[in-house]
Amino acid sequence: MTRIVPWSQSLLAEVLATGDLAVDLTAGAGRDTLFLWQQVAPSGSVVAFDVQEAALERTRLLLQAEGVPVFLHSYEDPGSFAKPGVHLIHDSHAQWLQYDFDSPRVVIANLGYLPDGDRSLVTQKDSTLRALTVALRHLRDQGRLAVVGYPGHEGGQEEVEAVGFLLSGLDPERWQVLHLRAANCPQAPLLWVAEKKAA
Ligand SMILES: C[S@@+](CC[C@H](N)C(=O)[O-])C[C@H]1O[C@@H](n2cnc3c(N)ncnc32)[C@H](O)[C@@H]1O
Known about the structure:
Layout: H1 4-13, E1 21-24, H2 31-40, E2 45-50, H3 53-65, E3 70-74, E4 85-90, E5 106-110, H4 125-138, E6 144-149, H5 156-168, E7 175-181, E8 190-196
Parallel strand pairs: 1-2, 1-5, 2-4, 3-4, 5-6
Antiparallel strand pairs: 6-8, 7-8
C-alpha cells in the first residue's frame, strides 16, 4: 500500500492515452520511461532526461529489448522530436527549454539517485525546482505532474521541502494537488501529483 512509485504511475495512467506526449525528468534505469511509453504507444512520444550516461544506456537497452523506437539527443545535437517513440536527452532537466518538443500531458520526476548507479549524480534542489517550474508552465490542461521525493539521503530533506513548498503554493483555482506519504515513517518516499484544471 505504501509503495509510492506504483501510485505515481497509476495516477498518471488515468490521464494518458495513445498519441500523448509524456516527459520523464529522470530516466534512471528506464522503468518510468517504459511505463509512460506503454501508455502512449504507438503514436505518442516520451521525452526522458538524465545527466548520467550510464543511466541513459540502461534505459536505451531496456526500451530496445521491448522494441521501442529510441532517439538520442544532447546539448550538442538537440535534433528533432517529431517522430513517435522515446527521445532520450543526455542533459539536465533544468535545460528543458533548450529542446523543442510540445506541451506534455504528463511529467514525472522520480528524484534522488539511481540505487545501483553513480550516487554523486543525485538530483539537486535548485535544478529540480527549475525543471518543475517549467513543467508546471508547459503542462497541458488536465495534465498531471507527479513528483516522487526521498527525504532519507543527504540533501533529500531540503529538496522535498522545497518541492512541497512549490506545489502546496499552487493556485487552487487552477490546480488540484494531491500529497501521499506513509504517515508513520518520516524517511519513506513521498508523492505529489498536481493536475492542471481546464482554463
Ligand atoms: C531515482 S533515479 C530515477 C529512476 C527512474 N525514473 C526509473 O524508473 O528507473 C534518479 C535519476 O536522476 C538522475 N539525475 C540527477 N540529476 C539530474 C538532472 N539534473 N537532470 C536529469 N537527471 C538527473 C540521476 O542520474 C538518476 O539516474
